TrEMBL record:
An MF annotation (GO) of this entry: protein dimerization activity
Superkingdom classification of source: Eukaryota
Protein biosynthesis as UniProt keyword: no
HAT C-terminal dimerisation domain sequence ranges: 587-641
SUPFAM superfamilies, sorted: Ribonuclease H-like
Annotated coiled-coil segments of the chain: 441-475
Lineage, opening ranks: Eukaryota, Metazoa, Ecdysozoa, Arthropoda, Hexapoda
Domain DUF4371: 137-288
UniProt-recorded name of the protein: Zinc finger MYM-type 1-like
Amino acid sequence: MVRAEDELNITNDQNLDEYVSIDQNTPTEGDVELEHLVLELGGESNQENETDDEIEEIQEEENKVKCYDEALIYVKELKNFAKDDYAFEQIKNLDCHFRKCRDDAKQKKLKQATILTFIQTVLNKFSVLLLFCGAFELALRGHDEKENSENRGIFKELVNFSAELDNELKVHIQSAKLFKGTSKTTQNELLECMLDVYHEEVKKEIANSPFVAVIADETTDVACEFQYLCKGQPVERFWRFYVPDGHDAKSIAACVLNVVNPLIDQNPNKLIAQSYDGASVMSGELNGVQKIIKETYPLANYVHCYAHQLNLIMTSACSVNKQARIFFHNLSGLCSFFSTSPQRTKILDEIVNRRLPRSSQTRWNFQSRGVHTVYENRKDLIEVMDNIESTSRDSSSINQASGYKLKLQDTNFVFWLSIFHKIMPHVEIVFNQLQKVCTDSVKVKNDLENFEAAIQTIREQMDSIIDEIERVQRETDEPARKKRQVEEGSKKREALEICDAVLSQIRTRFNFSGHLVASNLFVSEKFSVYKHQFPEAHLNDPCTQFSFLDKNRLKTELQVLYQREELSTTSGAVPLSILLNEEGLNCTFQETLKLLSILITIPMSTSEAERSFSMLKRIKTFLRNTMKEERLSALGMLSAEKHFVSGIENFNNKLEVVANQDSPNRGSSSSAVAGTLKYTQILKPVDVGRRSSKKGPVAVVVVAVATRPQPNSVQATVDASSVNLDAVSK
């Protein structure tokens, strides 16, 4: 190392003594240079006329190296650098000290990065386990999760099982003291992060779709869904459950608007349909919701839930006849009779070798399977009741078996069982057709016309049906067990009353009007007629309803469409829309595709909605009985949209990014998961040479944050750790 005397050209003792004896209080040129050097390394200046900005700069520079307090001592001793050789040894020590601190910081930084990566890996594994539990609707937590509990819940037991197959996870579970990741807080935050990732993906699809429809239903809470076009196909996406402030129209409308506004507020014409529970609409509770929504979104036409409508048809049909109502109540009780007792079920299996379907809570299943099963196995069921009467020791079972045996032999019960056995197959067919995801207005119209024709046929054949029922009764029932027969005219009149009620409800509730008439424009069987006589009446309604449609161009495009033989073979709005897009005709038939998109987006069925709405009860029962309402949305999404979630690319990476963002539905950075992931992501771009201003490894801070989140201190630690030791050492 070059001696300081040589650098300052001090050649004699006199000059040296003069230099050393300089008054230390005099601000000489050397002192000024020394002060600048001290400031660069974090020291304090003797000058008192610094401005506020300069003082802040000094404090910032001082904070960067305040962990190296010894540096200031070494620098001050440079004033005596010419006295003896000890000063030069101190300078050497300063350089060595900087290098040692830099190396230590690198090692601690590498250790910290390893710990953070490990924590992130563990969280990714936990998220996979949550996806598995949610997809199969498995209970996450048990009521007793202590170490000595025999059943600590599916999630913890699944984590323990996975640890046996993954040594890295096993080491973490056994050794972690501050952050294991199996707490309910971590589970809930991961679930909310998953829901946020799902929402971001749905938002992208909504942004790329031309039109959107909103579907809402009342359960214990209010559930929201959206229907829109994705790659030419209509899709329904579950959004989440909400607890409105009230149950009046204004509160529910406000709840729906809070969801819809952020998604399509910039394009109010994008929302073209709104659909609610048909039963609630008829009762008046939601009668004002569609009106309030339409004030903000004028093109949001109200559409009935057609699956609900069919249920209302059957309900109305039964309400017009007392005997029909009694029949369905007795049928429901008969099916439930076997489901509540293993002993009864065993006898049923031995004699009938077939189970009776339980009464379904989903409203579109109107006891159709129960009607078929009881009709086909009525004689065997009578034998089952005899067996229960003779072998059972339970008085309640004997009493109920005797009552149901009499019902199975009752002529009125058998009559209605036979009548509904004729009607229910057609009801079940049209239910299944309306529940198809790709159902459009054209297919709905055709399916309902076929259903109406089938009911009309049954009505016309009622005499022969009644004769067949009486013939079967005479052949199978013993005369002593017969009750007084109802007059033939009375039975026929009641049966016709049921058929008339069904037909009347169909014609009233499914009377397509307005824009739905446009579905007739795309009935391929009528293209040959439309070539010569254009259906002007079908075109006027949608163009009036949706003013953004160019009527003249749409008419020209449809005329060309009707002339093309290769297009006339395509039946249905969805296949035609896909064909036009695949053939690259989206610009040629621009207005036609707009109208097709409108017809496809309008919810013709609510199959996904129905599953999601009835899912609320399943989630509460099977997933988390003690869980708060806000977590139901995430679990409902994992169950209802498991195929969609499994198709999201880089799901765990997106989960980490979303966890770093603030969300109104979760604790964000104050949560265990968000705190850990945010800390991990912020430290990723930091160079290896950085060190925290706090004593101890940063990894300890991270683990502490994961268990006891303190967002302010976490952010401060990250900011203070941005010191680059390489630059300081230079």
